Amino acid sequence: MRMVFLGPPGAGKGTIAALAREYYGIPHISTGDLFRNNIKNGTELGLRVKSILASGGLVPDSITIEMVRNRLAEPDCARGFILDGFPRTIGQADALAEMTGLDAVVDFRISKEEVVKRLSGRRMCPSTGRIYHILFNPPKVEGKDDETGEDLVQRPDDREDAIVHRLEVYEEQTEPLIAYYASKGLIKEVDASLKPDQVFDLLKKVLG
Ligand code: AP5
User: Fold this and answer.
1) Which residues pair with 104 in a beta bridge?
2) Residue 32: CB within 6 Å of ligand 1?
3) Residue 86 near ligand 1, beta carbon < 6 Å
4) Is 188 in the pocket of ligand 1 (CB under 6 A)?
5) Can you give the pTM of this predicted structure?
6) What does the CA dihedral 23, 24, 27, 28 come to, rounded to 10 degrees?
7) Catalytic position from the list 122, 123, 130, 188
8) Mind listing the pLDDT tens digit for each residue in 157-197?
9) Is 122 among the residues known to form the active site?
10) Domains recognised in the chain with CATH numbers
């Protein structure tokens, strides 16, 4: 199964991808996580993209496309993959079409108001990337990762000004991909406003 998860920031793409990865036995490739790992490890790529991510803007297509091309060439992608956060522009979608075919593009549908609630309460484990929400999915011990016990952190782009900018960027640059993939008959809509297990059930249903 070769899937793309589309949807605004905070729609729950990463949360559902963590469930789908186990269920379908395919890797979850989040371009946001790949960039954040580079930033954490202080790589050259990380230094180049750090301020872009913090502001909520998009990393240039040339950098992002090359990173995804390399990742998809790894052996674990041979049986399929979940691409989360890529493509985000028409240029990226055209480049992806040259790299691989797709079986489905899942459009996670949710209101802006709900997205803002979700992002402002999100916390994550810095080493594993495990995602929590202070109200909707709290850790067992406040502020600590359930497995590693590490202090949870708030992403720099989950500040209010960056959230607003990310939503604008999504509307301008990424939303047109819904029509792009609909014209290819690949779009599967999912109501992302429900609880995670309900969203995951809907996903399994639309994927058949
Ligand atoms: P990225 O990491 O991809 O961020 P995003 O698309 O903005 O998506 P998020 O990770 O914010 O949200 P999500 O939908 O995964 O929601 P989550 O599951 O965490 O990208 C970050 C940055 O990297 C970009 O801004 C850009 O700079 C750069 N970048 C990445 N890809 C790029 C590309 N292709 N081109 C150029 N630049 C790129 O859930 C959110 C919260 O809600 C959590 O707290 C969670 O616990 C909670 N939650 C989730 N589901 C539910 C539910 N059903 N009910 C209640 N709460 C829920």
Assistant:
1) 3
2) yes
3) yes
4) no
5) 0.94
6) -60
7) 122
8) 998 888 999 999 999 999 999 999 999 999 999 999 999 99
9) yes
10) 2-111+174-207 (3.40.50.300)
